[in-house]
Amino acid sequence: MPLSEYEQRVLEQMERALTSDDPRLATTLQSSPRKSGLRYVAAGIGVVGGLLLLVFGAASASPVLGVVGFVVMFAGVAFAFSAPRKSTTGPVGVVDEHGKVTPPKASAKSGKSGAPRQGFLNRLEERWDRRREQGGR
Asked: What is the DSSP letter of 96?
C-alpha cells in the first residue's frame, strides 16, 4: 500500500531533520546495497570454470592451462567475497528551518585542494602536523 502525499511529506521532513541534526547518523542509517544472488552465481560459475581448466591442465600436462584455471578460480572467490561498490549518495548539506538545503562549508584546515580531509591516513597526517607545530623540529 503506497504512502499518501501527506505521509510522504512528513517522512521527507523527518529525514531532513535527521540529516541536519546528525548527518553522521543519517549516513550510517542509509540502506546499504545488498549483494545480489546474481553476484554469487557468477562467482560460482567462475570457480567451477576455473576448476575445470585446472583439471584439464593437469590431465593434459599443460601448466599454462592449470595456472589460468587457478587464476580464474581465485578471481571467482574474490568476486564473491568482495564488497559491491558503494554509491556516493548521502547528505548533500545542511537543511535550514525553511527546508532549504545548503552545501556544507569547507573547513579552514582542509588542505590544498579545498575538500575536507577525511579518512584514517588524513587524520594521522593532521596529528603529525599538529605535533610538529607544537614543538617538534
From this structure: -
Say if residues 76 and 50 touch (Cβ distance below 8 Å). yes
Residue type, 135: G
- Model confidence pLDDT, tens digit, residues 62-83: 899 999 999 999 999 998 888 6
C-alpha cell at 103: 552545501
DSSP codes of every residue in 43-59 = HHHHHHHHHHHHHHHHH
**Radius of gyration of the chain from its Cα atoms, rounded to whole angstroms:** 25
Q: Of 67, 70, 34, which Cα lies nearest the Cα of 49?
A: 70
Asked whether the CA dihedral 85, 30, 18, 8 is positive or negative, the reply is positive
Measure the CA–CA gap between 30 and 27, rounded to whole angstroms. Answer: 5
Q: Is 11 exposed, middle or buried (0-12, 13-18, 19+ CB in 10 A)?
A: exposed
Question: For residues 73 and 55, what is the distance between their CA atoms, to the nearest angstrom?
Answer: 12
> pTM of the predicted model, to two decimals?
0.41
